[in-house]
Q: What sequence folds into this?
């Protein structure tokens, strides 16, 4: 082979070597790009998953906050379901309470309210109250009505929660105030237009109230402890009138859980 031919062969060999080196370098670069892209995709996937999980957690937390029951009054618990069974009673003789005083301990979903019942002034009313309490008539019954204008009372005693329930009997008015004035803490019977429609519903007066009805409403006792509970319920306000019953229920639900009555000894 001539020197020129050998030189051309060497040049061609060098060119082939450089070409192979460039191809290898291009291949390595492509591999690096592929690896980098793969890492980016994996990282992006983790980031996306993290964001989704965090979003889900925030949504769950927000849902828990909005759906969790909120009490407007400190010390109140979620009331039990309204009883579904129909409850009735039998009117007891007023002699069972005549001349006696009783202490009623009313456990509610917002605390304990203690009442003094005056059987000397309202024997039939107190006899009925004691009988209904002993039978469990008021267990789990809501206080269905709160009035905040004109008259100021919290009304309870209807297991149906509608304001139309009764124990299946009625009796007349006793010990109605001559001046139609009901002082705060007064315990009185609720009734319909019929003077003999007293039954199981009663109300607690939380602010001085005038009820100028010619027949009047039976006062049968007073709250001796726990009036602060009623005051806080009243301060929380009332709902708009219910379409069916027109009752204005307390914004803070409150239900009677149990009522225990014992004769007060002198």
A:
């Amino acid at each position: 082979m001539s020197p020129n031919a050998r030189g051309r062969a060497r040049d061609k060999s060098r060119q082939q070597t450089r070409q192979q080196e460039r191809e290898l370098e291009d291949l390595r670069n492509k591999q690096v790009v592929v690896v980098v892209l793969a890492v980016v995709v994996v990282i992006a996937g983790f980031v996306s998953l993290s964001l989704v999980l965090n979003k889900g957690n925030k949504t769950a937390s927000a849902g828990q906050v909005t759906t969790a029951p909120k009490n407007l009054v400190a010390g109140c618990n979620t009331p039990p379901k309204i009883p579904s069974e129909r409850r009735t009673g039998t009117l007891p003789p007023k002699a069972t309470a005549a001349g006696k005083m009783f202490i009623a301990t009313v456990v509610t979903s917002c605390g304990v309210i203690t009442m003094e019942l005056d059987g000397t002034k309202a024997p039939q009313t107190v006899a009925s109250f004691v009988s209904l309490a002993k039978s469990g008539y008021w267990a789990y019954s809501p206080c269905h009505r709160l009035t905040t204008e004109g008259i100021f009372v919290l009304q309870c005693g209807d297991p149906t929660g509608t304001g139309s329930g009764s124990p299946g009997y009625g009796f007349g008015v006793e010990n109605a105030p001559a001046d139609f004035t009901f002082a705060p803490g007064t315990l009185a019977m609720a009734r319909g237009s019929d003077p003999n429609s007293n039954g199981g519903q009663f109300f607690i007066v939380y602010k001085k109230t005038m009820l100028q009805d010619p027949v009047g409403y039976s006062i049968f006792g007073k709250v001796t402890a726990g009036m602060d509970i009623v005051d806080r319920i009243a301060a929380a306000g009332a709902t708009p009138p219910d379409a069916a019953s027109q009752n204005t229920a307390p914004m803070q639900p409150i239900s009677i859980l149990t009522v225990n009555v014992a004769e007060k000894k002198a």
